[in-house]
Specification:
The chain is of the alpha+beta class. The chain has six helices and six strands. Helix 4 crosses helix 5.
């Protein structure tokens, strides 16, 4: 029975292109594999209602992993080193956009999700250790200012097939812009789309 189950996981692991599957890995990793290949199935967890509130208005797919509080998160091994997109959202604060309100602060991509989110946590942790009165003495990414002030929940999406992380990021940013008529507050004012015309011609 175990051999059949191991072969089942190996079959899907090979399709993902991530690497070899070791059936003796921790159970949490097995759970990740199930999540990874069943991304269209809504989570039956405490995150369900939060994901609905934050993602459902614009996002057309479910994340494969959710971090409730990035500042206190330590289990980085549960986030695979694969290409994908992450969405950072406030824990409880909504932001006003031209066409509604949303907790989404930033949408980003990476070829290695685990490494990227560890870097983000490092930045957030460093900024949170600085007293509010002197945070303006040095430039910090605006997304970090928002995340330190309002909390940080993170959602992770993997690429599918031959899709690149940049294309998935463009897709999610486009869906967000279509819904709210603006980019997330932490993404800045520069459009994610390629500028094809000189500024003076637009």
């Amino acid at each position: 029975m175990l051999e059949k189950l191991s072969a089942f996981f190996q079959r899907f692991w090979d399709i993902s292109g991530v690497g070899n599957f070791d059936f003796n890995r921790k159970c949490s990793y097995h759970c990740y594999i199930i999540r990874y290949f069943n991304q269209n199935i809504p989570f039956k967890t405490k995150f369900k209602s939060v994901m609905d509130i934050n993602l459902k208005p614009f996002c057309h797919r479910e994340p494969f992993y959710v971090v409730e509080d990035l500042l206190s998160f330590e289990s980085f091994r549960e986030i695979p080193e694969i290409p994908g997109v992450y969405i950072l959202a406030s824990s409880d604060q909504k932001f006003i956009y031209p066409n509604g309100q949303s907790r989404i602060i930033y949408i980003g991509k990476s070829e290695k999700l685990r490494a990227r989110i560890k870097n983000h946590k490092k930045g957030i942790t460093e900024l949170s250790s600085i007293s509010k009165g002197i945070r303006g003495e040095a430039w910090w990414y605006s997304r970090y200012q928002y995340l330190v002030k309002f909390g940080c929940r993170a959602y992770f999406f993997s690429t599918r097939g031959t899709q690149e992380a940049k294309n998935l990021e463009n897709q999610l940013l486009g869906q967000f812009y279509y819904k709210y008529l603006a980019l997330p507050v932490g993404n800045g004012a520069i459009s994610f789309r390629k500028i094809s015309q000189p500024l003076e011609e637009r």
